Amino acid sequence: MKAPTEIAGCGAANSRPVVVHVLHRFDTGGLENGVVNLINHMPAFRHVVVAVTEITAFKERVKAPGTQFIALQKPPGQGFWLYPRFYKLLRELRPDIVHTRNLGAMEFQWPAWAAGVPLRIHSEHGWDVNDLGGVSRVNQRLRRIYGVGTHRFVALSQVIEGYLTGPVGFPPDRVLRICNGVDTKRFVPADVVPEHWPYRRQQHVVIGAVGRMQAVKDPLNLVDAFLRLRELCPGDWQRLRLVMLGGGPLLDAARERLSQAGAAGQSWLPGDRSDIPDLLPQFDIFALPSQAEGISNTLLEAMACGCAPVVTDVGGNAELVEQGVNGLLVPSQDSATLAAALARLVCEPELRARLASASLARVRAQFSLDGMVAAYAALYTGLTTADEA
């Protein structure tokens, strides 16, 4: 490994390897949350977060001392003109590892290669918003081109692993699957109700969701499914509540649809929240209506909090939820089927409790944060050893 280096703003040089994490945008999201978890739990490395576009206040979730944040402010389009700037940055930082994530940052593998970064890793977290299912041959070709010279590719789900080794065509021995992990010490079932929580246990049944209010997350599908419960569960309707945590372009549309249906008083859509670990345990049912997912951080967090999941059968969701064992799977973009699954858990509290208990056990046994961190640490140090040999 190279001699110790000094990162501007990080104080004196030390011997910890430097990892540069490159993302399209550092803002609220599952991918970004996974990076935060990794940084906060890998003190053996020093971390630099580079956003191709911008860095938001989301960076405050990073608690690791000395972490540096850099925004390249790239406008829409190909980022070739930013390569010299990124190359110069890498020559100054002299990182041991550059780790890009998703297609929006993958092209920066090229300047990382040119800068002589010893270890170059790329992760794929899920489908691109404009290419659900990964069917675009242009995107497949771009990944092949940008991936030339990359040492290792990380897939966060079996579906993405098959995509990288299949249509994209990377050799299987260069692709490694590492699922997201959840901090089961931070996300836990809780008996204490937060003061700011608007509903009461025993009196209400809460159907909740957490995620950015954008088209790929399909929040309006969940709104429509919730409204259908008026007919499906007439005896329970008055005690049903819908909570949707997260901001985004469809937030106002979701609020308006609920208001027009006369259900505004039975819903709480407060936008982005920083107290998700306190609020998630208050959900009875966790709903994930997405059209596409990798390995969903919010689903793992809800499972760790003891919620019963109802999720769309897309991406890596079926790797986390086994139908009828620890949750229910439904087709995407089908509010009627989603409503029927929600109604089943509303009307069958024993089933709801069993699925919640099974989800809690599954996440603790198979998707711990410690396991995820250990896998990345082995990847980083294993590649370093191989590279030096």
From TrEMBL:
It comes from the Bacteria. Residues 29-186 form the Glycosyltransferase subfamily 4-like N-terminal domain. InterPro entries: Glyco_trans_4-like_N, Sugar_tfrase_PEP-CTERM_Stp2. Pfam families: Glyco_trans_1_4, Glyco_transf_4. NCBIfam families: stp2 (TIGR03088). This is TIGR03088 family PEP-CTERM/XrtA system glycosyltransferase.
